[in-house]
Amino acid sequence: MIAALLIASVAAGTALLYAALGEIVGERAGIINLGVEGVMLVGAACACAVGAMSGNPYFGVLAAALAGALISLVFAYAVVDCAANQLAAGLSLLLLGLGVSALIGNPFVGAVMPGLPSLARMDALVALVLPLTALIAWGLWATRWGLQLRAVGENPTAAFAAGCNRRRLQYQAIALSGMLSALAGAHIALGVAYTWAEGMTGGRGFIAIALVMFARWNPWGAVAGALVFGGAEASQLQLQAHGVDVSPFVMNMLPYLLTLAVLPLTGKRGRLAAPAALGRPYRGVE
After folding, report:
1. pTM score, two decimals?
2. Any domain includes 200
């Protein structure tokens, strides 16, 4: 049971980690996106559609990444160019993603998809998530691009005065965030469920946002958090499979109860770790 729980935790935590990594990149640039769930759904729907039509799940993964970047550009235009309220724009993106994914996925409801091949119960997206975490951590803290991105998230006015192109950096961060969130949806569809169902992400996008705060905007902290949250999700399935006499409705609540429990624990230190300009529209002159 313990071995099965660990394997299931990794599988469940992979999608959360992809989405959390994307949100970390976006928030480091000062942009908070509550529409992660919608982007994940679009990624899942596109992965299923292209995977089913081509018979190749890797084409589905690539289509998901492209679709995630494209739909995120709508959000980027609203918050970067139009200085719209980021929370309202994110919720609008969520609703847009719900509608677009339902439209794309409708012909494939209940169809069995070509799943990602796995070796030792590890598919390609699981194998790539840790190297990708290392790459993002290196990019944020060891490159000029990362320094400029974090500067924009801390003080966009000072970053502009230092020669940073705020608009370009935030567009890049949002597009990358969208790609990673869509890969999270693709993994749920082609690496876990092997089918499409409307709303199949089940609120994981919001858990990923909470995971960013739990990790204090650090990619490596997100790895530990993804295992914890993934373990909470996996435990309900494992306990039910082993006949534990607990209401399945209570078990289904575990990941979300954990999310609510973690948020107050971030406390003042967690708030201090957040980028200073997070969520604040830039109204300066460029």
Report:
1. 0.91
2. yes
